[in-house]
Design a protein that fits this description.
Elements lengths: L3 E2 L4 H8 L4 E5 L9 E5 L5 E5 L2 E7 L5 H9 L1 E7 L7 E11 L6 H5 L8 E15 L15 H21 L19
Antiparallel strand pairs: 1-8, 2-3, 2-6, 4-5, 5-8, 6-7, 7-8
Amino acid sequence: MGRVYPLIDDRLRDWLGNQAVFFVATAPLSADGHVNLSPKGVRGTFTILGPHTVAYLDLTGSGVETIAHIQENGRITFMFCAFEGPPRILRLYGRGEVLQPGDSGFEDLLGRFPPEEGTRAVIRAEVERIADSCGYGVPLMVLEDDREQIHTWAQRKGPDGLDRYRQDKNALSLDGLPGLAGRASRSS
């Protein structure tokens, strides 16, 4: 195995849409900065916009590394693993941009996703390289269910509580890069 694809075709689109979780990797420019790898698994929050363009709904979390790194340098890698069926790992390497409430294009992209109380941004990426690998080391697992905590937590916080949380926890990255600093990011 180990193939490079010229674009995200219908077959890849279907396969990507069937994966329950994906991972996003980013890094700052600083050699001593923290490399970040985040799992993303809320169904319906990843979409393919075109043969070289993808986006995902970024939900409020305890860190803001992905947003800070993309704002600094744009680099992002998505990784999808087959935990069911034939083994496979697919990586999408690209350049991302962060769209927050009030940014041009945010509302249009937001309509591509299910409503999520904890939305803080949409990450859109232009994919420059699409490559798979064998995935022989990825275990077979059965998805039991989706977790509801991210939804119930955001609902309990409410819009004002989410804004306060983001101001407190999402203003700066671990390395001091600007995250959501100075920006209100009301949920939809």
